[in-house]
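Two proteins, back to back. First:
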Amino acid sequence: MKIIIATIIVSLTVAFVLGLLLGIFKKIFHVDVDPKVSAVRDVLSGGNCGGCGYAGCDAFAAAVVKGEASPSGCVGGGPTVAKMIAEILGVDAGNAAKKVALLACAGSHECAKPRGKYNGVQTCKAAQLAVNGTKLCAFGCVGLGDCASACQFNALSMGKDGLPKVDYKKCVGCGKCVKVCPKHLFTLVEADKKGSVALCSNCSDNKPQIKKNCSVGCIKCGICEKKCPEQCLVVTNGIPVIDYTKCTSCGECVKACPDKVLHLLQEVLV
């Protein structure tokens, strides 16, 4: 019995001493936190997605209060959060336009021929390293879903046609899919952007092979350039590139494209 009592007394004494030391250390090493940092942190989305370019929401909150990051940097929160941050800091929200992910490939199972049966590690990165992807088109979507796995907002899923599908109601433009895609097929665009866009990333100049490998691949015919009344479209490195400061969404290039490579953004981002 004496041993039990002694053990309890020693345990309580040790706990008291440790608690006292922790309290002393807390006072010695205490760092005052700017109340604005806490206020900004409270209005963030809390996703810790890294889309802002910082390690997480805490790091972003500290950076935006220091003036090192823009109030519109929280892609998960979008314009609403940007406005609240700006009000806390008493600054302008800046460009808070919502951005979403766009896949520049239409090479589905039906359109793009497979390279063969891939039996390796079932990730796009592994297939890219091992056999340069799963399709004969070296620029096409691998289709093993690295982008969908990386999306923290459940805005990406793999379709039955072998291509990732973006749910634009959920997409916050965090850019995770942009970073993980080994073919670099994703880009971030403003959700309300209008104009034509090429859903193909094939830069090869081997026209017969392009068509053989994928029925919706851009064959660099240049008809889109010729048909554009605003002269805002130029085929650059094998891909139609649009100057959106001139594009009027007339759709003439879309109608003229023989391979249906060009589409209007306002019809894609829905």
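And the second protein:
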Amino acid sequence: MDHNAQLDAALQRLYDEGRYRTFIDIERKVGQFPSATWTRPDGTQTDITVWCGNDYLGMGQHPSVVAAMHEALDATGAGSGGTRNISGTTVYHKALEAELSDLHGKEAALLFTSAYIANDATLSTLPKLFPGLIIYSDALNHASMIEGVRRNGGAKRVFRHNDVEHLRELMAQDDPAAPKLIAFESIYSMDGDFGPIAQICDLADEFNALTYIDEVHAVGMYGPRGAGVSERDGLMHRIDIINGTMAKAYGVMGGYIAASAKMVDAIRSYAPGFIFTTSLAPAIVAGCRASVAHLKTDKKRREDHQAQARMLKMRLKGLGLPIIDHGSHIVPVHVGDPVKCKMISDRLLEDFGIYCQPINFPTVPRGTERLRFTPSPVHGPKHCDHLIQSMDQLWSMCELNRAQLTG
């Protein structure tokens, strides 16, 4: 077999479909976000505005977060030195877990290197703890949840996205005595729609099932203290396991689950993805804790963020662009063609200094390719004006439909 030829063919398929992805080399600078410097492939540099980052609230630049990381780095050095079981548990890790358990009103929390690993490790471990477990998974759950469910060796049922009646049908068909768990998200990041948390909790009560919610795109941004949509809706106490991240609204890195003390104890004792992974560096953990603590009280930052998202959606709709609007902070603009989606993204960056990566298959289904803008409280009126003018020009250039989507 000619291995290089096989690799060439695989990569060429991505080129032919307009799905080949390139890394954009950018440098963020403290105090200047969302501005950044882009280093082009030829080595020249250009100032750009980042419109697709997951640092939703700009907390990666916040003075209290940066100061906490400096302090921990100076005190402890670079790395944690091991796994959590072997020299990698520090006062910083325990303090952040206490901060997170308090945030979600749970007895305990458990840190992972990312929310992807937290989902994968937890969902793949649960059948070891509950033999015969059946997991009911929303069809549009994140890849990390799908992978965890796929790998766990237990039974799984996939219900149509946000279709509570379909979920009920599937649960009613299974053995009433079998342990059950419903896995879903509070905000689905590609369309920005909300999961029906209350209805799912009602079904969980009816069928004696556990609930597992991914709040990755909501923690820090929704609820009185930023604990997510389930806090906003007064439903946190009805969720058994909450998954969250520190890499988005909190602006740093890492993931976690929050649950009962027994559940957390069992997951940390059985999940290979936790047991055999070096723990997060103390400086990272210190930054996370500072960010979580700050956002528990910074209501204005959340309000400004929502206002920015509403304003951007209103102005894009004013151009007749097909916005997918479910009321969340996520602003997807439907393109529907992978080649044109990448073309607009490239032109935004190269001609207008606006960075927004195209979202193509397999992240979203074919024919639903889109640009996904993530406005933040630090995007000012001039940033927004420039984006609107640029999108107007490029939409006309690509001869794309301006008919409005309803979501």
